[in-house]
Design a protein that fits this description.
The protein has eleven helices and seven strands. It has 295 residues and is α+β, with helices and mostly antiparallel strands. The longest helix is centred in the C-terminal third of the chain and has 30 residues.
Amino acid sequence: MSTPYDQSTMSIDERIAVGRAARERVSRKSHGVWSPATDRRDPVEFIEEQATTRVPELVPLRHGRMSTSAFAFYRGAALVMAADLASVPHSGLTVQLCGDAHLSNFGLFQSPERKLVFSVNDFDETLPGPFEWDVKRLVAIDIRPNGDVVVLGGKNGAGKSSVLDAITYALAGERSLPREPLRRGTEKGEVEIDLGEFRVRRTFTPGGGGTLTVLSPEGARYPSQQAMLDRLTGKLAFDPLAFAGQKPDEQAKTLRGMLGLDFTTIDAERSAAFAARTAVNRDGTALRARLAAAP
């Protein structure tokens, strides 16, 4: 049988057998047990040792950032964890580790086949090692958001995208509507969203028509309803794929809008300075021509 390192020539059955053999050597339960070695080095020694190979001017900045929180220290201390894991049993299944595997180092990117992939996108601390090290580093820290997170899950075709589309259409209005917001044969659609402080109700008709109603908890109707929703969602709605397809000036405009930056005065001053410089260059060219023609 091939070894675990000859995966390119192994059949599926052989790979399964290798995995089962690895589990016999090191059970899953054993991965949940760790105790510091008697000769364990001071973790600070690893940090100081790494500093000798880094840009000296940036070392204080790095240490300052690491000291802001437990998670910040964790992100900068991948070597400390690797040293601790080096003394525990492992399966022997070696991979190219991320090394600093935590959710902040995962993201979306496009594969060569032009498919959207969610995977590791940062290999700052990469090295070959047991695959369990990345798994343990991922589960070693509990990242909790400040607020509520809603997860829409289900099989393909279950309606997840339809729910997100309905929310987008209800809040963003005409600027987000496709040419045909309703299925063919449907005469009317309606979405109602309760946001606590107010309720949004929007109806849709074929061709993009419909009505919008924004009500307070007491039932009072808000004035300038779409403008109110635009102020609420304008800086939060962001489509990274659409942004990537924009021209540089369009991207700049999008970012300015998200950040609430108004460069109108600066742009006007820059245009005036460019016009003045152009005039000076033109006058200089004319003057040189006159000097060249002088007897």
